[in-house]
Amino acid sequence: MTVERGPLFADGPHADVDVMVRATVRTLWPLISDIALPARFSAEFQGAEWLDEPDVVGARFRGHNENEFMGQWSAVCTVVQRREPTRFGWVVGDPAQPSATWTFELSEHGAKTLLQQRVRLGPGRSGLTAAIAERPDREQKIIAWRLTDLRSNMLATVSGIKELAEAPELP
């Protein structure tokens, strides 16, 4: 009998969500590249502010988070991808050893656009690695819980962006 196991931190666990939006990439670009916008939809992400001149690869911002199990924390993030109008990405913490890598990607499909959000955890240290160090025997369960929580917030974010992009314009 084969026993399936969840991912280990060394595997680079990741989560992906997507939604089809009735809007162009040009309509969606300002939404996915607004570092503060996800705070309107995510239960964990509380907001962000630029530390450097925005809109360039290498620009840094500070993001603020809160989670009932992990408390409150802030982290410096660095933009590592900015391909207007289709891709925006950043890393959390040290760009050489990020604790997480986040991306939004857009691809047009006729009159609609596929909006994807992805996160890859590690390889750098984070609150997740601290939790695993405390309970190494529960590593797979800790990671599975974290990925489920992240997916929930990511789905809320892409759904919120979809709603904004598809809202009728006010006269």
Question: Could you walk me through the main structural features you see in this protein, from its secondary elements to its overall organization?
Answer:
23% of the residues are buried. The chain is globular and about 50 Å long. It starts with 13 loop residues before the first strand and ends in a 5-residue tail after the last helix. By secondary structure, it is an alpha+beta fold. It has a single domain (13-166), classed as START domain (Alpha-D-Glucose-1,6-Bisphosphate, Chain A, domain 4, 2-Layer Sandwich), CATH 3.30.530. The longest helix has 28 residues, at 139-166. Strands 1-7-6-5-4-3-2 form a seven-stranded antiparallel β-sheet, covered by helices on one side. Helices cover 26% and strands 36% of the residues.
In short:
This protein has helices at residues 25-32, 127-134, 139-166, and strands at residues 14-21, 45-50, 60-67, 71-83, 87-92, 100-109, 112-121.
Name the descriptors.
single chain, Alpha-D-Glucose-1,6-Bisphosphate, Chain A, domain 4, seven-stranded antiparallel β-sheet
Find the structural class using helix and strand composition: alpha+beta
* Strand line-up across the major sheet: 1-7-6-5-4-3-2
Q: Judging from the principal axes of the Cα atoms, what is the shape?
A: globular
Query: How many structural domains are formed by the residues?
Result: 1
User: What's the count of strands?
Assistant: 7
CATH topology: Alpha-D-Glucose-1,6-Bisphosphate, Chain A, domain 4
* Tally of alpha and pi helices: 3
Could you name the CATH homologous superfamily?
START domain
Largest sheet: 7 strands, antiparallel
Order of helices and strands: EHEEEEEEHH
Proportion of helical residues? 25-40%
| Gross CATH architecture | 2-Layer Sandwich
Roughly what is the average pLDDT, rounded to an integer? 94
The termini sit apart by 63 Å
Low-pLDDT ranges? none
* CATH class term: Alpha Beta
Rg over alpha carbons: 17 Å
The fraction of residues assigned to DSSP E strands is 35-45%
